[in-house]
Amino acid sequence: MTRRWFSLLIILTLTGISAGCGAIQAGVAPAHSTHRNTKPAPSQQPTPVVVDATPPVQHILTPTQVISPPNSGNLTTSVQLRAPLVPGTGLDSISVTVAQQGHDDTLTVRSASGNTLWTVPHIGQVSVAEYGKQHLPVLLLGTDQSLCGTGGCGYVSYTYSVATHTFVAVPFSPWQDLSYQLNPRQGNWTAIPAFTNTNVLLGYASLTAKGISISFRLYGALNGGASQRYIYALDGTATGEWLPAGSVNFGPDAVNGFVVPPTTLQEAATEYLAETMQNHPTAASTFVASSANSAALESATAFMRSWGLAGNLHVAQALSPTEVQVAVWTTIGSGPTERLQTDVLDISGTQIAGKWYLTQVTVSPQTERVGTVQAALALLAKGSAVQALYAAHPSSTCSLQGQANGWSAYFSTGVNQPGLTFDINAQTGAVSTSNG
Predict the structure, then answer these.
(1) CA dihedral 366, 371, 376, 379 (to 10 degrees)
(2) Quick one: which H or E segment has residue 59?
(3) Tally of CA atoms within 13 A in the half-sphere of 1 that contains its CB
(4) Cβ–Cβ < 8 Å for 356, 336
(5) Sorting pLDDT into bands at 50, 70 and 90, what band is 218?
(6) Residue 387 three-state SS
(7) pLDDT tens digit sequence for 166-202
(8) Which DSSP symbol is given to 337?
(9) 45 vs 42: CA distance, rounded Å
(10) What residues pair up with 67 in beta bridges, in sequence order?
(11) Distance (Å, rounded) from C-alpha 23 to C-alpha 148?
């Protein structure tokens, strides 16, 4: 949910994060193919190459109490809460000191005896969920106004770790975004949960007995919004994790008063497909010409419904003044079995009074020889470039992201070290190298 709109710098010992409803890239879409192959052919089935990729047992916890300031959003006055955050320090006080105009707010945690246990700069919001004897309390912190924008504020969750004697960030769905580390001698990969890069939510959040609820803006022509709820679960780690409760809610399928008719066919195609991915056929119809067979367009693109934030668009240059080619893709599932689905759409349109509307859509599914993360990892492990990389940097980790033509595999080689990116063509299996 939170990694494609714009980057927000969080000085909470975290890096920036961005969010969005679908990346839109300019370039040339892949060539047409007439068949979809959702898994490699039998002769190309990869051998098992990934270990430790199964999530641990997750036990949902319900808070015994939730403590929040009476007002929502960023605080306008200093506030103090009390909760037993750190074992052996009594009923700790949690205070947010609000600076002038909310640009330098600070969170401070003190023990019952007045000793300072923790301070975090640029925090303007705080709530606490208590779980009794089941687990230490969990905090939800929101940034102050200096780190908020039109899309909302950044939110991070923390709990205290007895083992490290520090407050540690609670990740959001770390097993849905794995990285991988190669053991060249054994020829297998080890899956690593994303405990460090899934810590921030962007939008407007609140903590209640039902979990964290966050709403966020969608940057499209319809200026829509979406929301998601998270529930807290134990998973055998000190932090636990926040799990999504249900799918993203994109709100009602209705057209609001902010619609700006597109001035290019590319814009019309982009907005139509974005609304379709969010299962908003009424809103999508805003971009269809009245003379077109709207039922045929809706039927042709129905496979994209409910792709939501996992859907992507790659808009090519116009094939003619009234035709544009668009690649759409998503990844289905998570972990090594995560699968890439790509289709190419030829979209025709017409201009009416200076505005563009769709008239026809033709879909061509793509055949993918390297259709899963596991297949991509198996291919990478055999390459001499990856073998050389691990000989020089044995602790490197690889993260994969679906693209219009296949997979992008980024290798992180260490702090302050340049990374390396391999691009895998899912249709041909070709591997190329680009700068990380």
Answers:
(1) -80
(2) strand 59-60
(3) 26
(4) no
(5) confident
(6) helix
(7) 999 999 999 988 999 999 988 899 999 987 767 899 9
(8) G
(9) 5
(10) 128
(11) 22
Q: With left for phi above 0 and alpha for psi between -120 and 50, is residue 176 left, alpha or beta?
A: alpha
Grouping H, G, I as helix, E, B as strand and the rest as coil, residue 175 is helix
**Distance from C-alpha of 286 to C-alpha of 283, rounded to nearest angstrom:** 6
What is the rounded distance in angstroms from the CA atom of residue 349 to the CA atom of residue 322? Answer: 5
- What sign has the CA pseudo-torsion 115, 120, 123, 127? negative
Burial 191-209 (b: 16+ CB within 10 A, else e): bbbbbeebbbbbbbbbbee
CA–CA gap between residue 141 and residue 156 (Å, rounded): 5
Gap between the Cα atoms of 193 and 176, Å rounded: 8
DSSP lists the bridge partners of residue 434 as 421
- 14 closest CA partner among 195, 160, 144: 195
* Residue 385 neighbours by CB under 8 Å, 6+ apart: 422, 431, 433
For 333, other C-beta atoms within 10 Å of its C-beta total 11
Which residue matches tokens 């990478």? 380
Quick check: 152 and 125 in contact, CB under 8 A?
A: no
pLDDT per residue as tens digits for the range 235-288: 988 899 999 999 999 988 887 666 778 999 999 999 999 999 999 999 999 999
Residues near 208 by Cβ (< 8 Å), separated by ≥ 6?
66, 68
Residue 75 — φ and ψ, nearest 5°? -70, 145
